Task: structure prediction
Amino acid sequence: MPLPAPRPPKVVAASELTPELFARFRNRRPLLIKRFLPAAALAAWTGPDLYGAPERSGLVRHLLPFGASGAGSGEDGEDGERAPPAQTVSVEVLRARDGRSFVDDDRFTSRESVDTRELVGHVLLRQAPPATAAVTGTGNGTVTVTATETERGGSEHRRMYYRAVVPEPLRDSLQIEALLRPSCLTVPDQDRINPALVKAWVSSPGCVTPLHYDRCHGFLLQIIGAKYFMQFDAEDTGNLYLSNSPSLPSHVSRVPNVTQLYGISARTGERTAAFTNSDRANGGDGHDGTAEAVAWTLAKFPRVREAEPFGTLLEPGDALYTPPGWLHEVTSVSGSVSVTIPWDQSDDEYAHIKPYMTPAAALSS
Result:
């Protein structure tokens, strides 16, 4: 049986966000702000028709540009002249060595250049396909996603993650300072947003960022697609087996696939009341033996049972606050684009930092 269902975080509407309300959550608890981003901000990334004409979207024009249009094959056109082939634009993405878990560390991910059309094709996947995705592009900017014969290991070997600083036109569309400064960035001369640290995270369905913590405050803005976000109170850290080995980064937990322990499907973000040993037939992510995997994990890491997480499904326009030191695991339920906005703890907050977050603790692990 899965562990008990995660608790939902406190949910408020954007119109309810005030300095007094956010002060109750800052450095203490998560806060989900529904419809935080106005429709115009989302449209700057997706409009006018992301799924029908992605080449016209802000996502492609500013972040993942396609190459120049051409016939795509170099064959003779109707006028008898040979048309130029389509040009390609490549970006460097992360590929998880286990096909699932993405940590920006060479021990866990490799780097590979891919055509931006292929990456955008993964963004357009509304759910992890049952077979390996074959994503192709043409010279006129269209993207086609088809399912090919299932390869060993299934679609997880096609998953990719891309991270980049948000380009200025897209960053301006979010109006970050206008949205956050009045209510959330309230410590004078200390709460600052560094544009170079505002990152876009582009992922295939089924990508998992393993359980880890950050030393900063953070908002995640969901732009395209959906993500399931699991958060654990800093007081639960002792139950979550932080790395004690040089083979794993110090801010990462040794417990794998935490969301799965609570019965959350990586393909839907929904919870199941019971496991089967072949979850593919029930809409799972294609990995057989879920029940055995969960039993093994709980036997090896039994204190996880004592933790009481928060969990929520993020949809376009939502914003989720995570306090410093809170461990969290993030699963891309569909093709996804998110933006993270970090800012440093205040001097007073840093003076009371948790011991496991100190530089000395990181060096000793």
About this structure: The CA atoms of residues 200 and 339 lie 5 Å apart. Residues 129-156, 278-287 have pLDDT under 50 and may be disordered.
